[in-house]
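fold-stage: in
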Amino acid sequence: MATWKKFQGTGTAIVTPFKRDLTLDEKALRKLVEFQIRGGVEALIPVGTTGESPTLEYEEHFRVFDVVLEAANGRAKIFAGTGSNNTAEAIEQTRYARKAGADAALVVGPYYNKPTQEGYYQHYRAIAEAVDIPIIVYNVPGRTGGNIEAATVLRMAEEIPNVVAVKEASGNFAQIMEIALHKPKNFSLLSGDDAITLPMMALGGDGCISVVANETPGDFSELVRQGLKGNFEKARALHNKLLPLMNINFIEANPIPVKAALAMMGMIEEVYRLPLVPISPANRTKLTAVLRELKLLKTPR
């Protein structure tokens, strides 16, 4: 494995844009990558939850990796979403990400089958031993139905050399503090929830893998940079500015609101694959008001 330099900053869990016929919109995806990089984010995460990974075919996963890597052209780190609740499938996708040139793999905790803590450990260990790539553990109990406990994360951090970071989206600050207190020096603790990124950095967190950065890469990545510098007054001002958007992005299941917002911003077509459907009229009105307040409705040039 190439030498891993501890990641600190903002990674955008980038949406996957579709055309009206439900095929990948590669032109729009390249446009989104450019928007993110111009905004100053340090990393891009294709085919995560926000990228509608559950409805992408294998070949589409790989194609999105390729497009994002090509469009970024080394200007940002690429952490490819390669998780599955089938360990063998996760290994296969992670192998492709490694071959394609991704800097790391973001691997969500196995969903639906609800493994024990030992099962989580062995799942990540199997992937790490099969593929020589840095691995970011993604803990999101609200999506997976199971929590990867702090002790398990710390065990992986100590015993599996290429497990280099955790994206923590449990919302459990007792758990987050335990990881922050005991994690190895070179291990990154990343927020998986935009709204708690600032308090996590106050506890020793290293940044965020973000949804709101899709819409506001400049402001959110600056928030994280100021937090990492200890400039909490400036970071708090940006947090307060963006908090209504952070919250409205989850008024319905992610990525429904963020894709609606990006469509209103002229970045993508508002197309989802079932079982996701367009945002409700009442929530669209609320989302529009937040975007208007932040002056995001004008199409970026």
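fold-stage: in (second)
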Amino acid sequence: MDKLRIEGHQEFILVIDEIQKIGNWSETVKQCWDDDTISGVNLKALVLGSSRMLLQQGLTESMAGRFEQMYLGHWSYAEMQEAFDFSPEQYVWYGGYPGAAHLVEDDNRWRDYIKFSLIDSSINRDILMLTRIDKPALLKRLFELGCIYSTQILSFNKILGQLQDAGNTTTLSHYLKLTDDAGLLGGLEKYSGSNVKSRGSIPKFQVYNNALFGTHHWQTLKEAQLDPILWGRAVESAIGAHLLNLKQKYRYELYYWREQNDEIDFVLVYKGKTIGIEVKSNSSGLQKGAEKFRKLYNPDKIILVGNQGILWQDFLKIDPTILF
């Protein structure tokens, strides 16, 4: 405040990073905000933190009406390309963690960094420290399976069959919500044209950062590219992560659709318009599921991401709202 007056500035911007490491930070910021408002000091505080859940807890508990929230997601392909000269293929397998970019030439070091420095610390710090978790081993195993099966549709009952420390579907749904809030692993709902039906649907797992997919598979990037099924899933997961990360920024809804053997990989709803997105990393075109989806819901568009549509390499740089 003294610096403002002495130097004659009309306003200041104060940037504080990793604020969640400061005890009772939200109460202090609230008090300073109130004092500055009373004193007429035009100081704008930009508060940053790597822990999304810790920041949300502080904001909702004591900062009501005093903040504007801006979501900064995982690094995009465009950002990783500009900063580290990543190829599209590298981004699909290694994802968007800038701290791990210099380790991609050493597969073991890269995996250890993702697992221990990022995954373990995020789950232990952002989830287990903030929320009562009766079965932490169950949460961690759910997270592992969700990363392995990213872009696949698995019922919680089927997942329970793969778990030793079995809980119930309600517990698993709650744990998936926590990993979603932490910006790690989400569960897309099935599109049905009805929010009520969608909320009771079987989730489609989707990682927020494709490094979480790659690090849970033993293959190297070159080996993954030689496996058409695995590589197809990796590309689809990267497309899904791109869409999921931009969902909060652009305020669209993101779903999947499936009826028996017919499927649309992603369904976007934005300002009353609906778009279906089908991802094909090989040379095939739209499948019969697209026509069935068109007849049932009359979407505004069905877009193919692949060699016969928008190249997946280009789609990873697209603002999804321009598709509408």
